[in-house]
Amino acid sequence: MARWRHEPEPPDVVDPTRIVPPGFVFPGTEQLDPREVFAGPGYQAPRQRTEPTAVAALVCAVLSPIPGLGLAALILGYVALRRLRASYDTGHGQAWFAIVVGAATTVGWLWLWWLITQTT
Fold it and tell me: pTM (2 decimals)?
């Protein structure tokens, strides 16, 4: 008498359509909108995001001939570089430009202030 044996199913069946665990986010893609990336034909590269602090530092550096804005550019550039360490955003060049120009104009304003106070 032939007895039908029931074969147990494998305990862990892998779904071939799902190669990453549920809820997994690739590093650097936390802020991307999938509708924007996959909306058009083919793969659309996501737009790069510029650090807003770096932009503010750049504006202050450009306006640094106004007394005090050079120091603001220097501080904002430093803060932008600190924030850019932990992100995939752009703005390194803007932050470094703000630091260099802000430091130069701050030294220039301090030198001019020293000259004025020494002559009077």
Answer: 0.66
d(CA 102, CA 104): 5
* Cβ neighbourhood burial of 77 (10 Å; 0-12, 13-18, 19+): buried
Percent of the chain with pLDDT over 90: 54
Burial grade of 104 (CB within 10 A; 0-12, 13-18, 19 or more):
middle
Within 13 Å of residue 86, how many CA atoms lie on the same side as its CB?
3
DSSP codes joined into one string, 45-106:
PPPP-B-HHHHHHHHHHHTTTSTTHHHHHHHHHHHHHHHHHTS--B-HHHHHHHHHHHHHHH
Between 64 and 45, residue with greater pLDDT? 64
